[in-house]
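Regression test attached.
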Amino acid sequence: MPPRLPRLLIAWVILLVLLGIEFGASFLPLAPWPRVLILLPALAMAAIVGVVFMEVGRGPVVARGFAVAGLFWLLVLLGLGSMDPLTRTDYHTTVAHPE
Amino acid sequence: MSDAYVPHEFQYSSADHQAGTAVAGMWLFLATEVLFFGGLFLCWIYARTQNLAGFDAAASETELWIGTLNTGILLTSSLVYSTGIAFARVGDNRRLVQCCLGAIILGLAFLALKFGLEWSDDFEKHLWPVGPDFKFTGPIAGGARLFYVFYFIGTGLHGVHMVVGVFLVAMIAWRARRGEFSPAYATPVEVVGMYWSFVDVVWIILYPLIYLIGRS
């Protein structure tokens, strides 16, 4: 029996529990924007898969550098890209229709 | 890595060097994939912010049970393939083949549920966002169309990655059946496992974006 199996099984059980939590949370009567918090269990799940199943800590230092760089540039992409839609104020205007 | 001699290509100083380069190369590729899907996630932020009512109304039409079951299937497939990696590292090629077949069956089950059942239901319910037959009308129709553009592109791209993953896992199973892997040489098994679990991670993020957040 490979020594890594118990660790994999524990991670899988935690992942299913987190899946149940986010599934249950989707039925809570939350306002549209607080519902984005449902993403938190998903982010924890992604981190567990990255650490346990993908073994991000294994391999040469440059491999971890690539993994961190991917996350860093993702944050830059989402952070800068979200600036406009999250801070824009829409003013309603009357559109004149030609007769 | 055991002390057994493992052949390596001429450009590497050792088998460890070759293995480390393969792992680093896969992480570099996955970093580009993160940015590829990052653009899709940014589209979700932008489209939902500007079209909240239509976007969430459309999300309520998705099949929650299929999405949830598929998430469980993918999480289990990652467990099964990672178990195969653990067996490869102790030189058990027979168990590795079994784990690969298990992961393939789970991957095909995901694809059958997603494209065989869910997409055909979506078409029957007139949720294809192009054309005059779209289910939603009125002021929320624009936001609903944007949601289903995101839905079909996101699940379609993820599905393409799944198909590639199934072929890669099948290739590993074929090589394992020929006894190519050993405790000293299991790098291809590990690298394919990184890809397979990454596709899982993409779905872990897509699942709440599609099925959960807009369902009020």
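Expected vs. actual: identical. The mean pLDDT of chain A is 92.
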